[in-house]
Amino acid sequence: MKNKFEPKEGEVLFFIGQDLEAVGGLDKYNKGYLNTFEIPAGITAYTNLSPGDYSFGYAIKGLDGTKNKANWGAGDSCLQFYVNNPKFKNSMMAIGLSMVNHEKKIAKGKHDKLIREFGEWISSLKRPIFLRIGYEFDGWEWNNYKKKYFLGAWKRIHKIFTEMKVNNVAYVWQSKGTGSDQKILEDWYPGDEYVDWCGYSYFNNPDTEMITFARKHKKPVFIAEACPVLKDKYGKFHANLANETEAKQVWQEWFVPFFKVINDNLDVVKAFSYINVEWKSQIMWQNNDYFKNVDSRIQKSEFISKKWLQEVNKPLYLKANDF
Hints:
Strand order of the largest sheet: 1-2-5-6-7-8-9-12
Structural class: alpha/beta
Number of domains: 1
Helix content: 25-40%
Mean pLDDT: 96
CATH architecture: Alpha-Beta Barrel
Low-confidence stretches: none
CATH class: Alpha Beta
Strand content: 15-25%
CATH topology: TIM Barrel
CATH superfamily: Glycosidases
Number of strands: 14
Largest sheet: 8 strands, parallel, barrel
Order of helices and strands: EHEEEHEHHEHEHEHEEEHEEHE
């Protein structure tokens, strides 16, 4: 039995993200991935249930970046721009839903109004939505989720959406992708009845714990955040695709192993999202040792672009025009 929106055997959904400039394809955002390459299966972006918080000077209202443009330090974001553009009518959407600092309030019902507003908006989209509730739940260093309330918040959102008959959403449970063993994953798992897909992030230190977990639970895997990050002999993280010499190194050391993971696990890895971002230009990452020297924009490298197209143009990677 297939899980929600799971493609056929031997097929992989391909998404691109994760802000307007990175994705492109719009009149005012015309230097991104979609200005060079065809539209993939879906678009990845973010929103939150954290009203009243601040992020790099931006006052968070809740559901920021869905119906209205917002910028919390990581580039402009607005999913509605793609909804309103006819050329994206077949595009799925993967939405990272942050609830940092608010999982207890959500679990106790204090954000039900926002959840219902979000559910109504998702229902109105009339397309598949992959919802990553509390993504990177085990990223305690930056998300600091408390397990009891994380699980309570997840189940409350699921319950409200079920009552509202929000039928075009698949629930994606996403790990940070390294450092969590099977026991930790089991402890933080909402349960098979609440999860449609398992997900994880693939940066510098990918592992296969989530793939193992997903096979055990008979769930497909969404590599929900994928971006090259290398570490040099001095411990410095980097990956600048705008530098052709470095780009060739990145292809060999990151892209080749990444695609091998997908192709070696086609029984379970059924979707991935690539982050096509000039990280170092965004205020959120300028003092972040992990991303401040990263430019993962594929279109900036002729070498990477050619190799990339050779891979993603294979029939197994689904694009928007395949639906």
